[in-house]
Design goal:
With 258 residues, this protein is an alpha+beta fold. The protein contains five helices and nine strands; from the N terminus they run ααββββββββαααβ. The strands form two sheets. A five-stranded antiparallel beta sheet has the order 7-6-5-4-8, with helices on one face. A four-stranded antiparallel beta sheet has the order 3-1-2-9. A hairpin with a 2-residue loop joins strand 6 and strand 7. The N terminus is likely disordered.
Length: 258
Amino acid sequence: MSSDRLYPGNQRRRRGEEAKERRRKRSGSDCQAAEEEMEQSVIHLSHCQKEIFCFAVPEVCPSCGEELKGRRLQEAPVSLPSPFTDGHKTSCCLLVAPAHNNQDRDFTGTSDLHTGISNTKGVVYNYTQDGVRRDQSGWSHCVSVPLVRPDMFHLLAQWDQYLETFSEGPAWDPVWQKFHEEDHNCFSFCLQFLNGVLAMEGRGTLSRDDFTRCFILPRMRRVSKYTTLIRHLQEHQYYLADRQETLGYGQEESVATS
């Protein structure tokens, strides 16, 4: 006789676990679908003194109705670069991604975010309540902040060793010091590591506010504009702006840029 018939609680527990697993898989599928939506290529073109954003070049101008052919475009259509990157294809970057409890996988001002640092092989070191994780997956849709210039060969050669040694420190061992959401968290881990590298390079350290203002917020503003644009295009097909308006897609520098 089945043990489930002898112990009905086992059967209920099993059904509960199966339902939980289905919800987890469904949530993962929804997150992946949302990320794929955000990866749609946005095309930018100009016509009749308007900046036009869309997913595909239209046959006629959505502003004036004129047929769009050849030289009637003021400049060739270009694909707008996405602000998101695959963190495992980066090296020596600070990465910002939706936290594990962020079910919508979004970057809104009210959503929980998580930070980590990639080594030269794309492994992402990140501090959690259980200590430092070394993730080889899970950071495929994030925002990156370059920390090292490509010509800083001496630092690139030692980066992985620095990162591993720092991660083994007692400050990140939950036995010695517990995770705290405000004062000792994933961002504290990243900033303290970065400041340690800057000190070794003979450079001044960065405060939390300065680093956030100079390097995090500009990228998050770009993400906000980009995601707003994507959602507008999904609903309305086109976004039109006067030529003097910009979306703020400029050249971004690395922290190590002097």
